[in-house]
Specification:
six-stranded antiparallel sheet; alpha/beta; 12 helices; Rossmann fold; binds adenosine-5'-triphosphate; binds magnesium ion; Glutathione S-transferase Yfyf (Class Pi), Chain A, domain 2; about 375 residues
């Protein structure tokens, strides 16, 4: 799968811009704040129907404009796809594939697989569980339509259950029957999501361990476990047990919305003991392993968006990483860097087809 060209209109700091890409490696260089990350985000947006940074669309549209539009020309095996996103914040967004609009955005997810790595991803290890669940959800949504369907169902019910709990707290009443009905409806999507997350982690973990060893040159041992209360007891038992707590706190305190991944380095929690370079290696291995799984499941090379990945990595790790990217027959890659020289030096070492883009919007 390749993105041949993209056209941006009113997307973040781009009033209008077009780029024609190389099928292999694209290096996007420029000073801070020029729009390198924004360009990667526009590619991500076309593939996933939203910004990678969980931004509401009104923050994506260029300041003082009321719409944005993205047009991407993709090649998927031997078929051409023109993807167009037309977005007016506050209105239903339109995504068209070869001039046909999707009824639901959900139909689009997973057709154009993409993996993006950004500097902030180290928060996956260092911060709360939300980012790690997002990683699982992003991965599984692209891999499995049923997962996304059940996830949407679960969250809609969770919202209703929480609203009811809040209402009861306010009115100082409690309808056990209604809460139990919500729990019963949530049990099925919860179980499906739990099983699918468990299966995904089981497939992803060996890849992750292998890749971490390759990137770090086997300098340290890491591990990861999927943590979910559903592995201890069934959903109905858990919600009944937590009913009193839910009533007092006026929110649903158990369920798959509390799941987590626990990462360890040399048997200690990663978040407390990893160095910055180790964290970066960890992020790379996490996402590269996802790339591998998407690639084998989808039978195509996802687009790989690497934002500022060389920063904080020592020379050895950069070399290991690039060798890995090139040896593994990774498809189309987009790399951003503020140091043009660093990118040029790296490319010289590897004989790979590429294109360089210098982003300088200071004159615009
Ligand atoms: N909705 C928007 N409208 C206009 N400008 C925006 C919008 N959103 C972000 N920007 C601007 O885009 C610029 C940041 O672009 P981006 O993050 O892509 O830079 P970068 O080249 O990746 O920089 P760095 O090297 O620091 O990572 C900032 O100047 C920011 O103000
Ligand atoms: Mg950036």
């Amino acid at each position: 799968m390749h993105l041949k060209k993209i056209k941006l209109t009113n997307f973040k700091n781009y009033p209008t811009a077009s780029f024609e890409f190389d099928d292999k490696l694209n290096c996007i260089v420029g000073n801070n704040g020029m729009g390198k990350t924004n360009l990667l985000d526009s590619i991500y947006y076309l593939c996933m129907g939203k910004s990678h940074f969980s931004l509401p669309d009104m923050n994506v549209v260029l300041h003082n404009e009321d719409f944005f539009r993205l047009e991407g020309h993709f090649q998927l095996s031997d078929k051409k796809h023109k993807l167009v996103a037309k977005v007016i914040p506050g209105k239903k967004k339109v995504i068209e594939n070869n001039d046909v609009a999707y009824q639901r955005l959900m139909e689009h997810i997973g057709l154009f697989p993409v993996v993006m790595i950004v500097p902030d991803d180290t928060r996956l290890a260092t911060e709360g569980s939300e980012g790690r669940r997002k990683f699982l959800d992003n991965a599984l949504s692209q891999l499995d339509k049923e997962y996304l369907l059940q996830l949407v169902r679960y969250h809609a019910l969770l919202k209703q259950r929480n609203a009811a709990l809040k209402q009861f707290a306010k009115s100082k009443t409690f309808d056990y029957k209604l809460i139990k009905t919500y729990s019963e409806q949530m049990a099925q999507p919860a179980n499906i999501i739990f099983e699918k997350r468990k299966e995904f982690v089981a497939n992803w973990l060996p890849e992750f361990l292998k890749l971490y060893a390759l990137i770090s040159g086997e300098s340290e041992q890491v591990d990861c476990k999927y943590v979910s209360k559903l592995s201890e007891a069934d959903f109905m038992y858990l919600t009944e047990e937590a009913e009193e707590k839910d009533r007092i706190l006026a929110r649903t305190t158990v369920g798959i919305h509390k799941d987590d991944l626990s990462f360890q380095i040399e048997a200690y929690p990663l978040k407390k003991f990893a160095s910055q370079g180790q964290l970066k290696s960890f992020v790379l291995a996490t996402k590269l392993a996802l790339y591998e799984i998407l690639k084998s499941t989808k039978n195509c090379n996802p687009i790989f968006l690497l934002d500022d990945i060389f920063d904080k990595l020592d020379k050895h790790r950069v070399k290991h990483l690039l060798k890995l990217l090139i040896d593994k027959e990774i498809g189309q890659v987009f790399i951003t860097d503020t140091h043009e020289d660093r990118v040029v030096d790296i490319i010289k070492e590897f004989d790979v087809s590429h294109k360089k883009f210098v982003i300088d919007r200071s004159e615009v």
